[in-house]
Design goal:
This is DUF7344 domain-containing protein. With 131 residues, the protein is mostly helical. It has seven helices and three strands, in the order ααβαααββαα.
């Protein structure tokens, strides 16, 4: 599970450092296939904007009314990160997420946390972000 520089373990803890990513991974622990909603309306317009503009918007505290911020963040930040690590496979065309080739590396931690948690506890688990 770990390379000499510890990067594999760092990937696991970075993936689990955000409550939205933890929830998605917990869902995949129990069911290998998850549907991801399609972005529509104002959210779609934001998503089709320049990628850097979208990331700047998502990082800002200012919100656009009628935009589904949570879905935008899920589709443009959290899913790409989990897919990059190989913990999920994300078919953007079919709007489906499944377990990735490295999912078994995060599974033991998810199973441990699953035995310790309820939904309030899941949000309370604080893991520092990787620097």
């Amino acid at each position: 599970m770990e390379t000499d520089d510890g990067s594999d373990v760092d990937d696991v803890f970075d993936a689990l450092a955000n409550v939205h990513r933890r929830r998605l991974l917990f869902e995949l622990l129990h069911c290998n296939r998850q549907h991801v909603s399609t972005v529509t309306g104002v959210s779609r317009e934001l998503a089709q904007a320049d990628e850097e503009l979208l990331r700047t918007h998502l990082a800002a505290s200012r919100r656009v009314s009628e935009a589904d911020e949570e879905l935008l963040v899920k589709r443009h930040i959290h899913l790409p990160k989990l897919a990059e690590y190989g913990f999920v496979e994300w078919n953007r065309d079919d709007h489906v997420v499944t377990r990735g080739p490295r999912f078994d590396e995060v599974r033991p931690v998810l199973e441990f946390l699953n035995g310790q948690r309820d939904d309030r506890h899941l949000e309370a688990i604080e893991i520092p972000l990787r620097r």
